[in-house]
Amino acid sequence: MIKRTIEISGEGNHLYISQGSLCIRRGRQIVGKVPLEDIGLLILDAPTTTYTHSVLAEVLAAGAVIIPCGKDHHPAGLFLHQNNSLQTKRVKWQANAPVPLCKQLWKQIVQAKIKHQAGVLEPDSPTRQGLLAMVSAVRSGDPTNVEAHAARRYWPALFGKEFRRNPDGQPPNNLLNYGYMVVRAAVARAICGAGLHPALGLHHHNQYNAFCLADDLLEPLRPLVDRKVKELWGIGTDEINRQSKVEILSLLTEEVEAAGLKGTLLVALERTTASLVRCYAGEQKKLDLPKLWN
Questions:
Q1: CB burial string 62-76: b at 16+ within 10 A, e below
Q2: CB of 212 within 8 A of CB of 205?
Q3: Where along the chain do the CATH 3.100.10.20 domains lie?
C-alpha cells in the first residue's frame, strides 16, 4: 500500500478520529478525512491545531510517524511507534553487531551517497566525473573521510562557489533542512517497522542523538533532496511555503529501485531496513540501498 504524507497547516484546525479515519475540522466544517491505515507521515505544522492524546495514540498505532513543527517549520521532534513482534531479538543483533560489519556497511553507504551526488550534477560536469572516481577510494569505515572530500567538491558545483552548507545559513539551506527532515522521518519509520532501534547507529554515535541509525541511512538519500531543492532554487523559490512543501513532500512517493524492485521511496526504505536486519543476522553482507538514478 502506498502511504500518504499528511501535512496540517493553516489556522483553527481540530483533529479527531472517527470510524478508523483521521478527520480535520475547521470551525464547523470537516475539511479532510484520511483512513489511518493510509497515513505514513503526519506533519503538524500549525501551532493552533488542537487534538487529544487518543488521536496521537491511534495514529501511531496505525504505524505512522508524527512530526510536530515549530514556528520556523522545522521539526520539534518525532513520535514513533514500535510495533514489531521480533523487536527484542533484532535489537540484540543490532546492539551486538561486529565493528567490522558496521564499517563495511558504512562503506557501502558512503559509496552510494557519492554516486548519487554525482548523479545530481550535469553529465558533462568535471566534478561529476571526479566524484565517480572517488567512489573506489572509499575503504571500510571510510577512515580517510572521502565523504567529506567529496562534499567539498560537490556543494560548489551544485549551488555555486559562494554556497556553504550550514543548517543555520542562508537559503537554500532552509529548503535542504526541511527536505532532510522529511526523509529522515521516513527512514526512522522504516527502521522502527523493521524492529530495529533508531538510536543504535552504524557510524553515527552521539549520546544526544536518538536517531543515529536514521542519520546513517539518510546519507545516500540526501542527494534526492538536493536535486529537488536545486530545481526549486532555479525557479526562484527561497522559502518554505505551501508550494515548496508540496514539491519536497512528493519525494516520498518518487519511484526508486531497491533490491532490484521499483517502488516509492517509502516502500524502498522498508526493503533497505529489511536487508539491514539480514545483515545483522549474518544472512547477507550488502545493504539493499535505494538506487535513485543510473
A1: bbbbbbbbeeebebe
A2: yes
A3: 4-68
Question: CB under 8 Å to 64, separation ≥6 — which residues?
Answer: 3, 36, 39, 40, 41, 42, 81, 189
Between CA 110 and CA 143 the distance in angstroms is 11
Stretch 156-179: mean pLDDT: 95
Report which secondary-structure segment, H or E, holds 23: strand 21-26
Cβ–Cβ < 8 Å for 211, 184 = yes
Q: What architecture is the 4-68 domain classified under in CATH?
A: Ribosomal Protein L15; Chain: K; domain 2 (3.100)
Delimiting residues of CATH 1.20.120.920 domain(s) in the chain: 87-280
Q: Which CATH class is domain 87-280?
A: mainly alpha
Size (the chain), residues: 294
pTM: 0.88
Confidence class of residue 207 from pLDDT cuts 50, 70 and 90?
confident
Helix (H) or strand (E) holding 178: helix 173-193
